[in-house]
Design brief:
The chain has two domains: 132 residues, no CATH class; 116 residues, Trna Endonuclease, Chain: A, domain 1, CATH 3.40.1350. The chain contains nine helices and 13 strands. The protein is elongated.
Length: 251
């Protein structure tokens, strides 16, 4: 039996799925997971396409009812082993046949934006996974921290809560007992006229955030959003008052 198990574990075409907590699990072929992933792609495309989602379209925020969901979150629904293992744990699954049957029958629960499992388990996993790998966002937070330090402010940027994230908040910090929020968005181009017009793809919204940080592969722009000088939105453009631009430079 040990020899058979060793053969399974060494096979590149076979993987082991468990509940991620040391509980019992099962072996399955990668081809079976690939077939499930194809079904997931079809499902999430049907659910999110009317909101502007296209599979593997990049880092774009879309408005899904009352939530702001980044398309990278939706992309990462596919082949997400952490979500698979959480589903296994919550449903007490012990074999692959039950896993595939139950997953296909509960695609709504796992991947639909209104479902309980999605909001309790799937979305937090997707957010955490995406944030860890979002180099542009990490760089922007570093630049904002450097800017704050240059002004004599020693701040620590915290990760937003799930509720804050789906409202479009990407970071927050406290200063003198008050909390400030920021949104970080990629941009495609900008033009400096009477204001700075910055084009960004996806659904644009600001709410009551205090700072907007825009970035491309090589550049960043830090803008303050104040009551006296509000950042406005026109289509796919942020309209930023010139005297609200705090810092601009290269990575």
């Amino acid at each position: 039996m040990k020899k058979f198990t060793s053969i399974l574990e060494s096979s590149p075409q076979i993987v082991y799925l468990d509940d991620n907590k040391g509980g019992s699990g099962f072996y399955t072929y990668k081809s079976e997971i690939n077939n499930l992933n194809n079904d997931i792609i079809v499902y999430i495309t049907n659910v999110y396409k009317d909101f502007g989602f296209k599979y593997q379209s990049g880092n774009i925020d879309i408005k899904v009812d009352d939530k702001v969901i980044n398309t990278e979150y939706i992309d990462k629904m596919v082949n997400n082993y952490t979500v698979f293992k959480t589903f296994i744990r919550e449903n007490g699954i012990k074999d692959k046949y039950t896993f595939y049957s139950l997953m296909r029958s509960k695609l709504y629960d796992v991947y639909h934006y209104n479902a309980s499992f999605f909001n309790r388990q799937t979305l937090p996993v997707l957010i955490n996974t995406t944030r860890k790998g979002n180099i542009g966002e990490i760089k922007c937070k570093q630049k904002f921290t450097e800017y704050a330090n240059s002004k004599g402010l020693n701040i620590i940027i915290d990760i937003p809560t799930l509720e804050e994230d789906i409202r479009g908040i990407d970071g927050k910090f406290s200063h003198e007992g008050k909390e400030f929020t920021m949104q970080i968005k990629p941009f495609t181009k900008y033009e400096k006229l009477d204001n700075m017009y910055v084009q960004s793809d996806g659904s644009l919204s600001l709410g009551s955030i205090n700072y907007l940080i825009l970035y491309s592969i090589s550049e960043y722009i830090i803008v303050k959003n104040s009551i006296k000088n509000l950042i406005k939105i026109d289509g796919n453009n942020f309209i930023c008052p010139l005297d609200s631009i705090l810092d601009k430079g290269n990575f």
